[in-house]
Amino acid sequence: MQERVQTSWRRRSDSSAIAVARRADDKSDSLRDNAEKIEAWEDEGGKTGSVSSDVLRILIVDNDMRSADALELMLRSAGYPETAVAYSAHAALALAVGFHPDIAFLEMNLIDLDSNELAQRLRQRAQSSDLRLIAMTSSRRHDGRDVARNAGFERYLLKPIGAADLSKLLATASPGGSTPRG
Question: How far apart are CA 44 and CA 32, in angstroms?
Fold first, then answer.
């Protein structure tokens, strides 16, 4: 059994801990005040911060993990939070079942399945012709453009994809032509 002993002395660390706790309380009050200001601004017609159901869902399929991850990072930093990455065609097919992408960025030189066949299968799984297909390649050969166009890809991008090109492309893809949310 432990007994408590009350003393009148304090360690130096005790007083600094109390000061830190007081600063944390002040900070949380400040954050609460800021949140209330933002809510008031939103009620007055400001931009809401919530993600709605019409946010674009973007699927990235690329064997090159670094390239795929870099594109995902660029998309998320541009305000597109609904992204998914697959490093193979078969993984993309499995992922698409529950993800239901609006746009798919597909590497043209996939190892496990032809990109054109993957595009066709993704469209079938989406049960819609509204799925936008964007071809990506690091190959500088231009004969792939015609093949991609015939397979239903709307754009053919050379990697690395620049942020300006990406934002122009996605500005036309946003629901209602609006800007990204996130």
Answer: 19
